[in-house]
Write a structure and sequence with these properties.
The complex is a heterodimer of chains A (449) and B (90). Chain A is an alpha/beta fold and 449 residues long. Chain A contains 13 helices and eleven strands. Chain A has an eleven-stranded mixed beta sheet with strand order 1-3-2-4-6-5-10-11-9-7-8, sandwiched between helices. In chain A, α8 packs across α9 and α8 crosses α10. The mean pLDDT of chain A is 95. In chain B, 46% of the residues lie in helices and 0% in strands. The C terminus of chain B is likely disordered. Classes of the chains: A alpha/beta (449), B mainly alpha (90).
């Protein structure tokens, strides 16, 4: 039982019960926890619904009466008095939570090693990083501990771990899914999504989470389509390949896998065109001005009076980001850094808009490098930040992107991403689904069990 | 502005033994983001990608259920909220 689609069939044919399903996934979660450290808290919901779908939430989503630590020591005892909108919506639609998942503390990181409760380990090779910041979310789905997980993507935090764990991750259009009740990292780029084993499952979950929320003023007012409606239709689109995303800085074996996927799409009737996003080179620097600026503001409320413990419990990465944020926003530096970064961001967004006049969507690798070994990049912030070079521009422009499995290199999974114009999730799912039917990588599971 | 001043203004501390690594990394990040200084602006600044275009006049009305007092009264069992409640004398 690897997918929500399979589980729904079993329920329909009355071949299983909620009790048996949850017991099965709970047992796997508990058995794998000492090996993978993918959970922070394993604790089931109280009321078991009919036809329950096992889920777990990134421990940055507020859960009423259940600890929400953001993987930080400073919030280790924080128990929210309310549920995040997404948690509430999923609960209402038979998603049954098995607990809270590990992450890089406050979602600061790309490898899953920045958690104050220890790193999440990759089920394909525990010496490799899981990817972050939604490390627990990707590992829990990949290892078969649950069928779907909530996650957040501020600069690649859904797509990178999805890529490193052979699972599917959606970073929706900014504002498509409510941010209410999710600890804010960078309020202007935080996107709320989820991770599943297949594209169909992913679209199924988004059908419940997308839409306006009165508690999040930046959530969309648009009518939400049924993301499953046309997912199987054999459409053919024109895909752009940004030359700045396919160059000498990208690992050669990853490029080979990307080219193989392009050939599959060509056989399906898709057309390809080279495009240029020339200011991509500024994206990471721009992100590491805007993000720390918003982080320094968002984390200022954690002061031991209203929330959490005293500020000395902030660990390295959080301290670094708060300090950088306060530095670039301070008098005398604001124009040189923050104002310039806002200009770069607008230009990057405009470049995407221009490119989407010629193509329907874009295809690229998720990361420029293969999965690093634990400890290889975590102590070198610049090396670490550059892992997000291909995911960050999408966040800067508020666009949707879908990370999906593209094969394996030396036994480790590698993903590609499809990027579309705002609110093009249906096209991304359709395109992703057609590739998935050809490759079926979701059938390959790690041998951790 | 020195790293020490920034930490002090941010109400943050770094262990003495970790300080030199922190300072080195901080300075390397500043050097990295200095790349922005070579960017040449074309076009105008646009904030639409930040979700501001989703905000309507209805959203600008302060909702009763989200009042500070309501949030605090609703969360009596939370240690942090109780502290706030005492500070605000509610």
């Amino acid at each position: 039982m690897n997918t929500i689609k399979d589980l729904l069939k079993l329920y329909k044919n009355k071949n299983t019960s909620s009790k048996d399903v949850i017991e099965h996934f709970l047992n796997i979660s508990k058995k794998l926890q000492p090996k993978l450290n993918h959970y922070i808290t394993i604790k089931e919901d109280k009321e078991l619904p009919k036809n329950a779908i096992p889920i777990a939430h990134k421990d940055i989503f507020s859960t009423k009466g259940l600890k929400t630590t953001c993987a930080s020591k400073i919030l280790k005892n924080y128990v929210p008095p309310f549920n995040a909108t997404v948690v509430k919506k999923l609960k209402k639609n038979n998603f049954y939570s098995l607990g809270k998942l590990n992450l890089d503390a406050f979602a600061h990181g790309s490898t899953g090693e920045n958690s104050d409760f220890g790193p999440t380990l990759n089920p394909y090779d525990t010496k490799k990083v899981a990817g972050g910041s939604s490390s627990g979310s990707a590992v829990a789905v990949s290892s078969g501990s649950i069928l779907c997980a909530t996650a957040t993507d501020t600069g690649g935090s859904i797509r990178t771990p999805a890529s490193f764990n052979n699972v599917v991750g959606i970073k929706p259009t900014y504002g498509l899914v409510s941010r209410y009740g999710i600890n804010a990292m960078t309020s202007s780029t935080d996107s709320i999504g989820h991770i599943t084993n297949t594209v169909w499952d992913n679209a199924y979950v988004l059908n419940f989470t997308a839409g306006k929320d009165i508690y999040d003023a930046t959530s969309t007012n648009k009518k939400i389509p049924d993301y499953l409606k046309n997912i199987e239709v054999k459409n053919t689109y024109t895909i752009g390949i940004p030359k700045e995303y396919i160059n000498e800085n990208i690992d050669k074996d990853i490029l080979k896998l990307v080219k193989e996927k392009i050939e599959i799409y060509k056989k399906l009737g898709f057309k390809f065109k080279e495009v240029s996003l020339k200011n991509t080179e500024y994206a990471v620097a721009c992100y590491y001005v805007i993000t720390p600026s918003e982080v320094s503001s968002n984390l200022s409320r954690i002061d031991g009076i209203r929330f959490g413990d005293v500020r000395k419990y902030f660990e390295n990465e959080a301290v670094r980001r708060i300090a950088i944020g306060n530095y670039v926003l301070s008098s005398g530096y604001y124009d040189a850094y923050y104002k310039k970064a806002v200009m770069v961001r607008s230009t990057i967004a405009q470049e995407f808009t221009d490119v989407f006049k010629d193509v329907d969507l874009l295809l690229s690798p998720v990361t420029p490098n293969q999965t690093p070994n634990t400890g290889d990049v975590v102590n070198d912030p610049i090396k670490n930040y550059l892992m997000d070079a291909l995911t960050i521009p999408t966040n800067m422009a508020g666009l949707p992107a879908l990370s999906l499995p593209a094969g394996f290199i030396k036994g480790m999974p590698v993903g590609i991403q499809l990027i579309g114009p705002k609110y093009s999730e249906s096209i991304l799912y359709n395109t992703g689904y057609l590739l998935e039917q050809e490759t079926e990588y979701y059938k390959i599971k790690p041998k951790i069990n | 502005m020195s790293v020490e001043e920034i930490l002090s203004l941010s109400n943050l501390q770094v262990d003495k033994q970790k300080y030199s690594t922190f300072k080195k990394n901080f300075e390397s990040i500043i050097k990295f983001i200095d790349k922005l200084k070579t960017f040449k602006q074309e076009g105008s600044v646009d904030f639409n990608h930040t979700g501001l275009n989703n905000i309507t006049s209805k959203d600008l009305v302060i909702k009763k259920s989200l009042s500070q007092k309501g949030a605090i009264m609703n969360a009596n069992n939370i240690k942090g909220y109780i502290a706030t409640k005492q500070v605000l004398h509610i």
